[in-house]
Amino acid sequence: MFTDEGAHKEQPPSSMLKKEYKVFNNMCQHSIFPRTGSKDK
To answer: Does this model's pTM top 0.85?
Structure first.
């Protein structure tokens, strides 16, 4: 994450925020879905 941000410093802050938001959502999904899947099983 940090290396990508450093390489894309030239991009506007809005794109960085969107990227961080997407990564945050992915982390939340990966941490939540496995639990719900195990509960369903």
So the answer is: no
Each residue of 1-38: pLDDT tens digit?
455 555 555 666 788 788 888 888 887 777 766 666 55
- Cα distance between residue 36 and residue 39, in whole Å: 5
Q: Which residues contact 4 (CB under 8 A, 6 or more apart)?
A: 19
For Cα atoms 35, 38, 41, give the angle at the middle one, nearest 5 degrees: 150
User: Locate tokens 């506007």: which residue?
Assistant: 12
Residue showing tokens 């982390």: 27
17: left (phi over 0), alpha (psi -120 to 50) or beta: alpha
